[in-house]
Design a protein that fits this description.
The structure holds two protein chains of two kinds. By secondary structure, chain A is mainly α. Helix content of chain A is 86%, strand content 0%. The radius of gyration of chain A is 16 Å and the shape is elongated. In chain B, helix 7 (222-254) packs antiparallel against helix 8 (267-301) and helix 9 packs antiparallel against helix 11 (351-367). The chains are: A mainly alpha, B mainly alpha.
Chain lengths: 101, 847
Amino acid sequence: MNTWLSLLGGLVLWAAHFLAAYAIASLADISPYEHQAPLTWLLAGLTLACVLAAVVLAVRAWRATRRPDLGGAFVQRLSVLASMLSAIAIMWQSAPFLWRY
Amino acid sequence: MNGPPTPSETGFDTALYERFPTKGRRPKGELEQLEAIWCAPRRWQWITVINNNYVGVYYVGAAMLFFVLAGVLALLMRTQLALPMQGVLPQETYNQIFTMHGTVMMFLFAVPAVEALGVLLLPQMLGARDLPFPRLSAYAFWAYLIGGLAFFCSLFFGLAPNGGWFMYPPLTSTTYSPGINADFWLLGIGFIEISAIAGAIEIIVGVLKTRAPGMTLDKLPVFAWAMLVFAGMIIIAFPSVILATTLLELERALGWPFFDAARGGDPMLWQHLFWFFGHPEVYIIFLPAAGAMSTIVPAVARTPLVGHWLVVLAFLATGFISFGVWAHHMFTTGLPGVSVGMFSAASMAVSLPAGVQVFAWIATVASGRMKFNAPGLFVLGSLLIFVMGGLTGVMAAMVPFDWQAHDTYFIVAHLHYVLIGGMVFPLFAAIYYWAPMVSARPLSERLGRWTFGLMFAGMHLAFLPMHLTGLMGMPRRIYTYAAGRDWEWPNLISSIGAFVFAAGVLIWVIDMIRNFRPFGASEAGNVYEGGGLEWLPAGLYSTRSIPVVRSLYPLWDQKNLARDVAAGRYFLPGAPTGGRETLVTSPVNAEPQHLLRMPVPSGWHVWAAVFTAGFFLLLTVQAYAASVLSGVLAIICVLRWCWFLDHPLPQRAVDVGAGIELPTYASGPSSTGWWAMVVTLVVGGMVLAMSVFSYVFLWSRNPDAWRPPPDTASLAVATLSAAAGGALALLARRQFARPWLATAMVLVGGALLGLAFGVDLSSWRATGLSPQASAQGAIVHAILAWQGFFVAVAAIMALYVLLRRLYGYVGPDRPATIELVGLFLAYTAGQGLVGFGVTRLFPAGLT
C-alpha cells in the first residue's frame, strides 16, 4: 500500500485540492461580497498546505531512492516527479481564484 | 534506472528465480495434457467459449463492426450535407443518424475496442494463461454485442434516439422528446456501461495479479500500464453517467424532476454528471491507444521507448488531471467566472502529459531505425493528426475562443482530429501490428499502405475544411443549410474526404477477409520483431511455461527465452491440478503467491448476458412483466455461475516448476476475488459520491424550497441498525472456522441492513415528501433507491450464503465466500450511513 501511496500521493493531493477549490469557488459564487476575502484566504491556506504536503511526499520519495524499498528506484523516481508536478499543478489551478479576489 | 535491490513483497524468496530455466526434458504427455485441457471449442462451444484467444477476437471484431456501421451513418450525413438544401435525409432521420453516429462510435466502438484489445493482448503480454475472470470477459462481450445490436436496430424502426450523443435535457425530457427514442439511449447505454465496467474490473485485477514472476512495475509493459490507468478511469468515470442516465430515465418514466426547473430541478446537473464522465472518456479512449503506440513505436523503430518512465508518469497524470476538465464543455452555460478559470487552467494542464507522450514517440522514432511498414505509417499518421487535434484543443481551452467556437463545426473538426489521431489510427496500427499474433497470415503490407494512404488523405480532406466552416459560423447538427454563406465548397470537400476515408476502411475490410485467419493451429508470429512476451510461441493455453521476466523487453534482452519457454523450462510447464490454471502474483513485485484454478466453458454467462440484455431492452419497450422475468432469470444464471466458485481442490499445494510449491486456494488481499470485490465497491462508492454531489447541487439551486428531514429518532434507529449490520458482516469474516455462526451473522447483518433501510424509507414517506413534487423529493428518493438496490443484492447474497451452507459449501477450508459477502454487506452499511447523514443532516445540520 505504501508503494501506491508514494506513487499516487501527489496526484491524489492534486485531485483533493481541485475538488476543494471547486467547492470553495462555488461557495464564493453564492456568498455575499464580505465573505469573499475569507474564502480566498481559505483557498490560499489550503493551496499552501497541499503544496507543502506534495513537497514532503517528493522529499520522502527522493530519500527512498537511496535505500532498498518496495517497487524499487523506478517507483520512487516516478513518485518524486509526480509529487513535484502535482505541487506545480496545484499552484497553477489556484491562480484564477487567487488572482481574481 | 538501477537502484538498490528491492525487498520481498510477500516473503517469497526471489533467489528461487535462479532455478529457471530448468534443465532436462519435461515428462512425456505434459504438453498433450495442457493442449487437451485448453482445447479448441467444438460446435456450440464457439458461443460458450471463454478463452481470451477467442473472446478477444470476437470482441475486437464486434467493435470493428460497430465502427463500420457508425461510419456508414457518417457517410449518410456527409451525403446530405454535400450540397446546400439537399433532401437525402429528412430532418428527423438526420437527427437520429447523427445521434446514433456519435453514440455508436463512442459507446459501441471506441471504449469496447480498446477494452477488447486488452482482453486479447494482456494475458499474453503479462505471461498469464488467461485473465483471472474469463467468464466475466465473455459475459461483458455477449452483453455488449446483444445490447449493442438491439440498440443499433432501433434505427430501422424510427425509434433511435435523436437528442445528440450527449442527450441534454430539457430537449430529451418527455415534453420535447416524447416516445421511447430517448429511452433506448438511456437504458441501452446504461446497460452497455455495465459491460464496460465488468471489463475494467477484469483488466485491473489481471494487470495487478496475474503478471509473470519478476515483472515488477518497471518491467510492466507500457501497454499494460496504459490499460491499468484506463480501467481505473472507467471505474471512476462511468458511475457518473450510469447515475445520470438513471436519473433522466426516472424523470421520464416516473416524473421525478431532477432536471425540470419548474419543480426545482436543474438541467445543468445533467451536464455536470455527463461531462464528469464525458471528458475523461476522451482520455479513456486515448490512453490504451497511447499504450499501443508506445509498444509499436519501439518495435518499428527498433529501439527501446525513449523516456519510458516519463510516459508512465504521463499516463498517471492524465488519469487524474482529465477529471478536472469536465466543465470545459460548459464554458458557455454561465458558470461562475472563477470556476471557468479553474477549468480552463486544468484544460491547458492536461495537454502537458499528452505532449510528453508525443515527444517520447518522436524521440524514439528519431533515435531508432524507423521502418515505414503499415503499422509504422499508421503510427506516424496518428502523431501528426493527434498533434493537430491537440493544438485546437488548447485553443478551445481558452474561454473567449471557446465562446466563439462552441457548437460550431470547428469543434466537430477538433474532436475528430483528436479521436481519429488519438484512437482510430493507433487502433489500425495495433491491428496491423498484432494481427500476426492471432492470425495464421499477417495482413497485407501493400493493402495496408493503401488503407493508410486513403484514410490519412480522407481524414484531412474531411475534417480540415470543417475548421473553416466552423469559424464561418456553421453550427453543429443542422441537417441542411442555405446557399450563399460560403459553406458550399468546404462542405463538398468534407463529403468527398469522408468517402475517401471510407474507401480506405473498405480496403482494410478486404484485407481482413483475404488474410485474417484466426483460431488456426499456428500463427504468423513475430513479424515486426517486437520485444514483449506476447510474441513468445503460444497455443490456446498461452505460453507453454510462464517465464521469469528480467527486462522490459524480455524477447530482446533475455537470451533463448522463446526456446526455453516453449520447452517448458519455466513456471507452470504443465497442469499440476489437472485443470485450467494460472499463476497469481503480487501487485508490485509480481512474486508468485498461489495457483488460480480457472473455470471451464459453460452456458451460464451467455444466458446471463442474454437475460440481462432482455431486462433492459424489455424495460425500454415498456414490457414491464417480461422485463422483470428476464431480470430474475439473469440473477439465477449469475448465481448458478457463481455456484462453481470457491471450491478448494484436493491438492492444497502443488509444484509449479523447479520444485517451488504454491497453494491452490487463497482468500483475502492475495486473492483475485477480493480485488474484484473491492473494485466493484469503488464503483458503488462513486455512484454514491455523484449522488451526494447531485443532492448538494440541487439544494444550491433552490435552498429555500428544501423541506426539513424526518425526526431524529428514526435517524438514530436507522444508523444503529446499519452500523450493527455492517459490524456483524465484518465480524462474520473472522468466524469462518465456525461456519454456522458465520452464516447466521451474515443473515442477521443483512436483516439489520434491511431494517435500517425500511426505517429510513418509511420515515421519509411519513413526511409526505413526494418524489414527483420537488427536486428534493426526487433526489432523496433516488438515494433511497440506490441504497434499496444494494440492500436487495445484500439479501440475495445472504440467502446465497445460507444455501451454500446447507450444501456444505461454507466451511473453514473455504473462507472466500463469507469474506466477500461480508465486505459487500459492510460497504452497504457504510453507504447507508452516508445516505442517512447527507439527506438528514444537510442542510438541516448547518442551521
